[in-house]
Amino acid sequence: MELRHLRYFIAVADAKSVTRAAAALGLQQPPLSQQVKALERELGFALFKRHPKGVELTPGGEVFLREARETFANLGRAATRASRASQGLVGSLSVGLTSSALAHPFAPRLLREFVRAYPNVDLGLKEGNAADLSEAVAKRTVDAALIRSPVSHPSGIVFEELVREEMLAVLPRGHAAAKGAGTLSLKALRDDGFILVRRPGAPGLYAQLIEACNREGFSPRIVAEVANMVTNVTLVAAGMGVSAVPASMRDFHRGSVVYRRLRPSSRLYAPVTLTMRRDDSNPVAKRFATLARELARAVA
């Protein structure tokens, strides 16, 4: 059975005449009659009762007409859905986020705007560190990720800096340097223990801080390495040491810590980086990346 057989059948049923249906379809009457009879033979029952003035549906024909119309309706819906999917208007998208990137206002704005613009896309979120999320993108278990600094550069993965922000020194509220005004030199913290996000998870920010301290003439004494920036600030709040975190985190534990800008000589920056596969053919992922770039330009 072919779709054209269904189309011919519906035309005859609507016209209640093979002759009128043939004219509407641009066919000769005999070939159309043969096609309808061939369909009846394949089905094993008569679709029409034939009489001198035309045809009328049999009980079986009435049921088959409803099903034939539904078949064409389903085909139309399927074509529409497929077209929308090819344009990235429907489908699914898995986005990875580090807790630090998520703290930046850009990340929730991007997610909010994407959901508003593409309500028919199934958006899934996965939290992790930069190393794990970069690997997840490479393995295709995540479509895109927002991280801070790249950890490694797997083949076929591209990193695109979207926005960047200053990093701030974060100190326990009772720290001597917490009472000062203006900017702070990292050198003023040379006798303190530093709390850092683990090198495997965020080597870019880790290395930046080490290098900045070295430029100030000292090697930082690292007292703890943690999994993420939130834990980092929490341990500072507990009085276990000092650290530096992106400025967008300055509302965490405000009652227990103090955030200070660093002097230009000590200044550090934290990017928000889009991580994607170079050859990704997912149109939804491409729309996500396009929106991310547009928003990044708007806030630059």
Topology:
Elements: H1 3-15, H2 18-25, H3 29-43, E1 48-51, E2 54-57, H4 59-86, E3 91-97, H5 99-103, H6 106-117, E4 121-127, H7 130-138, E5 144-147, E6 157-172, E7 193-197, H8 203-215, E8 221-226, H9 229-237, E9 243-246, E10 257-261, E11 269-277, H10 283-299
Parallel strand pairs: 3-4, 3-5, 7-8
Antiparallel strand pairs: 1-2, 5-11, 6-9, 6-10, 6-11
Helix pairs in contact: 1-2, 1-3, 6-10
Q: What is the distance, rounded to the nearest whole angstrom, between the alpha carbons of the first and last residues?
A: 60 Å
CATH homology-level superfamily of the largest domain: Periplasmic binding protein-like II
Low-confidence stretches: none
How many structural domains in the coordinates? 3
List the secondary-structure elements in sequence, H or E: HHHEEHEHHEHEEEHEHEEEH
CATH topology of the largest domain: D-Maltodextrin-Binding Protein, domain 2
For the biggest sheet, the summary is: 7 strands, mixed
Query: Can you count the beta strands?
Result: 11
Question: Per DSSP, what share of the residues sits in E-state strands of 2 or more residues?
Answer: 15-25%
What's the CATH class of the largest domain, please? Answer: Alpha Beta
Question: Which structural class matches the secondary elements?
Answer: alpha/beta
Level-2 CATH architecture of the largest domain:
3-Layer(aba) Sandwich
Rg, Cα atoms, Å: 33 Å
Plain-language structure description:
By secondary structure, this protein is an alpha/beta fold. The chain has ten helices and eleven strands. The strands form three sheets. Strands 3, 4, 5, 6, 9, 10 and 11 form a seven-stranded mixed beta sheet that branches. The protein has a two-stranded antiparallel ribbon with strand order 1-2. Helix 1 (about 5-15) packs across helix 2 (about 20-25) and helix 6 packs across helix 10 (about 285-300). It is rod-shaped. The model has no long low-confidence stretch (mean pLDDT about 85).
